[in-house]
Amino acid sequence: MKTDGSSRYDDLTLAELVEHALALNEGQLSAKGALVVSTERKTTVQRFIVNEPSVSDVIRADAQFHLLDPQVFKSIWERVKDDVVERSRYRIHAHMGVDPPIAVPLEITTLSAWHALSCHHLCHIPDAFNPREKPEWKLIWAPLASFGDAEILSDGGGVILIHVGKRRILMGGDLTTGEMRRTLLTLLGLLLPEKDTLPLHGAAAQGDGEITLFLGPAGTQKTTWALRCGQLIGDRGLSWSNAGLHRLADGCRLHLDQNLPISLDEALRFGTIAENLALENDRQPLLDDPETRSELKTTTHLVLPLSRLNATAESNTRGPSQLVILTTDPLGVLPPLAKISREQCLAWFILGYGNHLGPLEERQAEVDIRFTPGFMDTLLPRNLDDYVFILEDLLEAHDTRCFLVNAGWHGGRASKGDPLSASEESAVITGMYYCTDWEPFGSLGLSVPSGQSETAGPWHSKDRWPESGEYTHHLSQLIQSIADELNRTNDPERWLNALEIECN
Fold first, then answer.
1. Domains of the chain, start order
2. Residue 17 has pLDDT above 50, yes or no
3. What gap in Å lies between CA 1 and CA 36, rounded to an integer?
């Protein structure tokens, strides 16, 4: 197959896009059928948002966006657009969001077939595009060369520019599909609160008449936990409003590790994009190749349809019966399972406490305490209170029960403790659904199941530690870190009281 240098290909099928990608040498097929592509992880990705009243009045001061003059954006947009029309390109018409009232119609133009393929998974391809005739957003994903000598490219890294007023997005460079997803979630983080809708970086499932929503930082295995509770509603990208909980896209992006929630054969079928997957000479996957990973300075991710997982085809759901805050506690002092109030749930949402140094199966030499507000950081660019107030109303309206699960280490800090075993994780799920007898944890206002589980062991973290003094020391360290973080919020007294931390 040949492509003309200035051809435009509109809304090709998945199979056609794979065919184009192979013809253009953008990747190769693995023996199992996945399209394998290489992406270099940029040391820096500069994010710009055009400075206009609709943005400057609501965006967080620490949102990690550079403000850009509208005229500078206009100049760059025209330059990139003129360059792109001279090239072979792919255009996809898609929605970001499945729920019609909040769905954002997108016209996405890419110069790579595999980039267009990723949009098939990371967006929603509707039966009818934009039936409500909403104003469309235009997104162009182009090489840095298309940007010319724009001064914003001074460091040579990837670049993302968002113009809310003009409904335009520019992405430049050899960016990962993760950056595409991040950009679209950032867009919804700006737009959805105006519709009393909360964008979420989480996973949700329905089963036995219950809907369970998992929120947490990267590395907490949200998808795997959700699948234990039933059929997957959505992964990583969700919207929650009074109309219910909805997925935002038709696919998902998963880190390829031993916790992959489906079989490798299923994950690497035709239609999957495998970023930075090393292959043997016979194109079988080489799953443990530290030399290749070091050279690329990246990890392997898979982009695939949600239908590969145990996902429901139902697009409209009610709100969650329970919300689970997942954390990976590197200090190893939080209990495996705790019941929390809705007020406490808001505090943990604000904190976004966790750790992400690597796989949980690996012992970590250092403890890295991280706070990622809302678990999305740059994906929530508005003032954090805009999201907290919506979450507060939704928890009340849907009578949602709330829990805290430590998916990290137990019996010691990250260098000494152990993650939960499969049987312990099952006991956590069972306790969450069926436990009726709870008792105080002793700190942070938490309650844990009474007694001891036959499969999970003691619910009180202290009982898992060989040295109670060391446990007490690390618990105090965590409480102080939490207090310091909450003191930076707009209403520290409220959140400190929620977690029963003494106000200074």
1. 8-195 (3.40.449.10), 198-248+314-498 (3.90.228.20)
2. yes
3. 19
Q: Are 242 and 397 in contact (CB under 8 A)?
A: yes
Per-residue pLDDT reduced to its tens digit, 429-457: 999 999 999 999 989 999 999 977 777 77
The single-letter DSSP state of residue 378 is G
pLDDT of residue 293: 43
Cβ neighbour number for residue 342 with a 10 Å cutoff:
18
- Structure tokens given for 429: 């799920």
Burial of 452 (0-12, 13-18, 19+ CB in 10 A): exposed
Q: 273-275 and 301-305 as β-strands: parallel, antiparallel, unpaired?
A: antiparallel
Q: What is the reported pLDDT for 194?
A: 92
Strands (E), 342-471: 353-354, 370-371, 401-406, 409-410, 418-419, 438-440, 447-449, 452-453, 457-458
- Contact (Cβ atoms closer than 8 angstroms) between residue 366 and residue 305: no
Residue of 343, 271, 249, 243 whose CA lies nearest to 117: 271
AA letter at 40: E
Residue spans of beta strands (DSSP E) within 111-144:
137-142
pLDDT, tens only, 304-355: 988 888 787 766 678 899 999 999 899 999 999 999 999 999 999 999 998 6
**pLDDT score at 274:** 93
Residue 208 CB neighbours (<10 A):
8
Q: Which long-range contacts (CB under 8 A, 24 or more apart) does 482-487 make?
A: 482/351, 482/353, 482/444, 485/351, 485/353, 485/371, 486/347, 486/350, 486/351
Summarize pLDDT for 385-409 with one digit per residue, the tens: 999 999 999 999 999 999 999 998 8
**How many Cβ atoms sit within 10 Å of the Cβ of residue 105?**
20
Contact between residue 194 and residue 241 where contact means Cβ atoms under 8 Å apart: no
Q: At what angle do helices 342-351 and 468-486 cross, to 10 degrees?
A: 80
Bridge partner residues of 160 (DSSP): 47, 171
Nearest C-alpha neighbor of 285 from the set 32, 25, 100, 13? 32
Rg (CA), the chain: 23
For residue 207, the one-letter residue type is: G
C-alpha span between 62 and 356 (Å, rounded)? 21
Residues 441, 460 contacting (CB under 8 angstroms): yes
* Cα within 13 Å of Cα(62), Cβ side: 7
Q: Which helix (H) or strand (E) holds 290?
A: helix 290-296
- Neighbour count for residue 335 (Cβ, 10 Å): 26
Q: Are strands 210-215 and 198-207 parallel, antiparallel or unpaired?
A: antiparallel
